[in-house]
């Protein structure tokens, strides 16, 4: 996955926005103000921090050692750092981004979730 593909995919979700609260080099993708993906898109290898179910996070780290690791500068129980331009299939990276978005949306207040469901 290229940085452009990662950015486009993150922004394809309903109400997703890109922000730069930490520095101009670090893209933070949010839904309704809540972070679901964070990446330094110019870094090589390309990595992205993604929210993950804690049990799933451990399984993924074990199955993809070195390519999926505890979230860098994040809560290691709930976040993984995923190498997006390496040995992982793009399909898996997309699934992990989508899962992160879905977990964040599920934690939003009901009114915000309902607004997301509107066309």
UniProtKB/TrEMBL annotation:
Gene3D superfamilies: 3.90.1150.30. It comes from Streptomyces dubilierae. PANTHER family: CYTOPLASMIC PROTEIN (PTHR35145:SF1), CYTOPLASMIC PROTEIN-RELATED (PTHR35145). It holds the Pfam family YjbR. The keyword DNA-binding applies. Coiled coil: none annotated. SUPFAM superfamilies: YjbR-like (SSF142906). This is MmcQ/YjbR family DNA-binding protein. GO terms for molecular function: DNA binding. It comes from the Bacteria. The keyword DNA-binding applies. Keywords: DNA-binding.
